[in-house]
From TrEMBL:
Residues 392-596 form the Beta-galactosidase trimerisation domain. Keywords: Glycosidase, Hydrolase. This is Beta-galactosidase. Its EC number is 3.2.1.23. The keyword Hydrolase applies. Belongs to the glycosyl hydrolase 42 family. It comes from Actinoplanes subglobosus.
Amino acid sequence: MRIPYGGDYNPEQWPKEVWDDDYRLFAAARIDTLTVGVFTWGLTQPAPDVYDFSTLDRIVERAGAEGKRICLATGTGAHPAWMARAHPSVTRTDFEGRRHRFGQRHNSCPSSPDFRRYSTEVARRIAERYAGNPAIIAWHVGNEYGGACYCELCAAGFRDWLQSRYGTLSALNEAWYTTFWSHTFTDWDEIEPPSALTEHWRGPDHTAFQGITLDYLRFMSDAMLANYRDEKAAIRQSDPDTPVTTNFMGLYRPIDYHRWAADLDFVSWDNYPPDDRSAARMALAHDLMRGLKGGQPFWLMEQTPSVTACRDVNPLKRPGVMRLWSWQAVAHGADAVLFFQMRAGRGASEKYHGAVIGHAGRSDTRVFREVADLGAELSSLGAVTLGARTPAKVALLFDWDSWWALEISDGPSRLVRYLDVVTTYHRALWQLGADLDVIPVTAPLDSYDVVVAPALHMIKDGLADRLTEVASRGGTVLATFLSGRVDGNDNAFLADVPGPLARLLGIRVDEWDAREASVVNPVTMNGSTFESRLLFELVIPQGAEVVGTYRSDFYAGTAAVTRNTHGAGHAWYVGAGLSQDGVTHVVREVLTRHGLLGPCADLPDVETAVRVTPDGDRLLFVLNHGTVPVDLPAACAGPDLISGHPVRTLGPNGVAVYPSQFTKYHD
């Protein structure tokens, strides 16, 4: 056994002689796992009552005969052209109210009975045909679910969803605060999806009624989840055991992956960072994906071996970066390393997307050599990391409801973006080497010494009490500006800000000052001064100790950062939009109190992560994201499991994995 290695393969695009070349090159690169059938619906079902499995049969048979493991897709990521012509209801209506015609992908209305019927049936037939094939190790439903629809079918589905959620119109009117602007609803049929034609102006984030828009975001996420559940249930009729998944997109706002996690047998996701300087952001996404199912390892379902092809500019991964980022995924919990794509497509929008095998089919390119070298490393490592988990004592709370609610709010600042705040605090933890879990607000907190809750705008489900318990038993809670503002319906608490968190944090906030990004109000902490921007809350201590103060404006000298003693622990509050170095300063103090700094905390650009195998062995991963070699501390001793010899100096883009007996710094 070893980590599955390979990725998306589309042989339906090529003649047989190309298949022969592909498998020769797969062997050279140690490729052992192929994801097939992702966009074959139009071939598999060329007409409403016609199913043709001849192409998919050849693909599956050849992969099995070559000894490859197969992740078999249902092909429903985009519907066929005949379906849109025969059943116009399957195409989406966009935010501006325009009914789309056939084209692109992400083009199916999740509420369409025709789409649900056809997608379920093709999944059922595929599973019925291929279930029991020993080469199939996973089923892949759909592809990168996302987008939204605003058609009449979705409007009707939304009303049904609301009746199930609220029960009565009275409860709904109260939740949505409909006495504002004469919006009281007296019949369910009066309710419209919030769109450019109803509650919105200037785009999807500008809404007159946040409660309505928030619920539509929840509904649309649930509607697409229903599509996934349809297909998974169809697969289970023929195959009760082989795991079923779909590929998530990491830090993707439209779908609440926490609501989906229970329905996936394992999480998989596609890693396409916005640039080539996003090591910390990728770490956050990996940690979020791992945290969806309580720390269970995930699959890296897609990454490019070289370039993407969907942005204005598409930087090439420099030599060694593909290897580095692949090992980073393993360090954070990946039990598979897969690519999009195996061979570069000849036409259409992804013909310039990176691939293991380019258009010329050569094996002497730099990209192919790097893929082959990584394949050899993973083969040499074997099963050492499979099933390993992260022994985290730090949790970072991530909440789609807070993300949505904060960014559709008309105040205090539209310049404050939820993901920017979360990324800043995660990056501090990442820089300082803390092993952490990124978890939902509903997760148990008992096993964590530190809980970081950035921009926890919405408080619900007894979360305030559970955070209070963390501090009471000796842990530390770190919260930030714009926390504790609204309840689960996005209505403000009739209490001092930060609402249910006020007693734990020992503060209140009466006023806040939102400014453009050019305005800086410095904050002084422990003799050092740091910039802060965008939002400045005027924090009034109610028992909390002042740790940092503002330097300018009429509130100069007042509290910007506080620490409250609660029970045996502490609760910190950062009321200003601190710069990265300011946030890292606060986080360092918190981690130091609990002895949770990593062994390379003082080495810039060096990332560490620990995984514990099912046998209890601890593995320390060390990754150098910098451009110069670094000398490693004594904790990084012994033989590197990748190279087989001791590594005390790690070069640029370098990776080392040290065995358990040398990673006792957390014990």
